[in-house]
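Exercise 3.2. Students should predict the tertiary structure of the chain below and write it as structure tokens, then compare their answer with the key that follows.

Predict this chain's 3D structure.
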Amino acid sequence: MKKILFNVPLMTGKEIDNIRQVFANQKFCGDGNFTKLCNKWLEDNTGARKALLTTSCTHALEMAAILLDIKEGDEVIMPSYTFVSTANAFVLRGAKIVFVDIRPDTMNIDEKKIEAAVTDKTKVIVPVHYGGISCEMDEIMRIAEDHNLYVVEDAAQGLMAEYKGRTLGSIGHIGCFSFHETKNYQCGEGGAILLNDESFLERAEIIREKGTDRSKFFRGEIDKYTWVDTGSSYLMSEITAAFLYAQLESAELVTQKRVKLWERYFVNLKSLEKTGKIRLSFVPDNIKHNAHMFFIKLKNIEERQQLINFLQDNGIQTVFHYIPLHSSKAGLVSGKFCGEDIYTTNDSERILRLPLHEQLKEEDIDIITNSIKEFFHG
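Answer key:
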């Protein structure tokens, strides 16, 4: 029986050659040549004013919280259906998290529920682009402007995806990417922060360099550097950046292949949606996705587990995703849910993610979708 894994980390074949160059140059810490190449690639391909590699998307989000001067008692609005890092970055600064419900079609924050959650303590909105499918950013940015709020895009899954022609991560004041090995382009662990507001550029460099003006020193702008602000060590190593650059150079081709696989899933499973057996992933108009994932929704949590078991018995690995943060132990302490939880918990118990990675072949998609059809017809 053929085993089909849920995820196989991307390898382009150029990673080792790049790392050899790092060894030859004997520059291993952050902000070397490959770091600069990655930063420039991100700026050129997103339109951000400045991009800085970080050790993770978690750390990019933490940098954003420091940049925005989040303090005790500030409120930050976000969906409960997200990874814990989205909330933790702001909780570490003393913020209270205000969770709102999601849209059932995209699993993104429901833009119609955000404004009711805004109070005089609200400081930031954090839209999470689930699966590389954009939130409704026009409405989110309108709310932010009307209420003098910041927007930090959690675009961990969103590189190479767009909203109305604009790259995810480049629309809000700050954007954050992940290069974890489960992402479309990866270096094991890694991330980046996009700065779309001119006022953040200088301070972001300082925060990323342990709160020092060391970057200015290396550029020859000052004759010595010192501690000038709050910060931490958020620099990606040059070895990791060399690995990542090989992946970024292949991003367009990788995205094209993933989208082709995504579309085959959609075509193969459309008949099951028409008969009401499942719900498929949905992409709104004016949005270009990056095929980060393909998910289906089952009737309930019991049916989902039955299908997981059935596919596992047929050599196919599938997974579900987040447990809503507002119902977690820490979420009950550090957050609150605004409005009614209509879809967040219910849909989190129905969603099932299917294998999608660069090594997957179209015939593998056919095996997976035929097995799903067999489950329902059997």
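Discussion points: The mean pLDDT is 97. The first helix runs from residue 15 to 25.
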